[in-house]
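As agreed, record copied across for absentees:
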Amino acid sequence: MESMLEKYKGIHPGMILERELKKKNLKKVAFAHALNEYPQTLNQITKGKRGLTPALSLKIDKALGFEEGTMLVLQAYFEIKKEKKKSNNQLRPNISNFRKILFWDTDITKIDWEKQYRSIIRRIFERGNSQEKEEIINFYGKDKIKSVTGNISVTSGVITLLHNRKTH
């Protein structure tokens, strides 16, 4: 169960259910009837419009041969991710410190600052000014910056970045 949880952590369990039904070549209506549930309920779950209850998740686990509690744990992880997105102000740097041109190709308010940290750090250190670099260092911390960029030192407002580049 742990590998499945890590793989699907944060994804709505209805999407995983949909995938499993397709893999097993099962029709939603027939599956819903086998669980003694309304097809509409199952349809709403697979579309991500409705969450799983403990009772229904146990039925699905048993019917699909999952370890007991798998679908409910996936629902919990989804709810956690959803709650984290609500408190997104704590999960991102002060975006007013970034020039709009820096993120010209994306909506800066929709960036997942945790998942996309490598590309964000690279972009800031390739194209950003010292204020933007300072903001990223304050947000991620020097260790995380160093793990992505190679080596970093900040002295008197100057940020030095050394890339480990291969020479041919």
Observations:
- The domain at 2-86 is CATH 1.10.260.40 (434 Repressor (Amino-terminal Domain)).
- Residues 70-86 form the longest helix (17 residues).
- Strands lie at 151-155, 158-162.
